[in-house]
Amino acid sequence: MTIDKRFDAERIEDEWQAQERALEQERRGVPGNEGTSRERRYRVLARVLAEPSVAQLPVDFAATVAREARTLDAAQEAREQRFEKRLIVTLWSVLALAVVVVAALYGEQLAALLRPGQASSPSAAPWLFVLLGAIGMSYLWQRVQIRRAR
């Protein structure tokens, strides 16, 4: 696809000329209904830009906004960390409670499974692999999170 640079240059030149005519008409005080619609829009824009602004921003406006943003970010980060700590404590508590319940319900079967030389229940063996897999996945996920944090 080729672009005719002459057309683009002509369009830019035409736009610039319309702006200049609007500025000149505004300087001369030409009534608002004269000129093309584009020139009238540029005259309104020139009139607005020529007026002093009502409220000036403070000199340190950007620094103040940046400081507030950092403060808000720090507060949000602190809230997120508190939430994560509470969530971790809650999840560990639930896990500990689950271990106690499982030990109470299936303690003898688990002890038999872990005793060397004893015949273990064939239905309990897959659950040992599930437990080991869950521990392994938890460890791997923790390692991934630590690497992402770096």
Mean pLDDT: 83
Query: Runs with pLDDT <50, length 5+?
Result: none
Shape: elongated
The assigned structural class equals: mainly alpha
* Count of β-strands: 0
Radius of gyration: 37 Å
Q: Report the portion of residues in β strands.
A: under 5%
In whole angstroms, the N-to-C terminal distance is 46 Å
**Biggest sheet features:** none
Task: Please work out how many helical segments DSSP would assign.
Answer: 4
Domains, number: 2
Encode the helix/strand succession as letters: HHHH
Helix content: over 70%
Can you give a write-up of this model?
The protein is mostly helical and 150 residues long. The protein has two domains: 12-50, no CATH class; 83-149. The protein contains four helices and no strands. The longest helix is centred in the middle third of the chain and has 54 residues, at 61-114. The relative contact order is 0.04. The mean pLDDT is 83.
Q: Care to give the gist of this entry?
A:
The protein has helices at 5-28, 37-50, 61-114, 125-149. The protein contains four helices and no strands.
Core attributes:
single chain; 150 residues; mainly alpha; 2 domains; 4 helices; 78% helix; elongated
Topology:
Elements (H helix, E strand, L loop, with lengths): L4 H24 L8 H14 L10 H54 L10 H25 L1
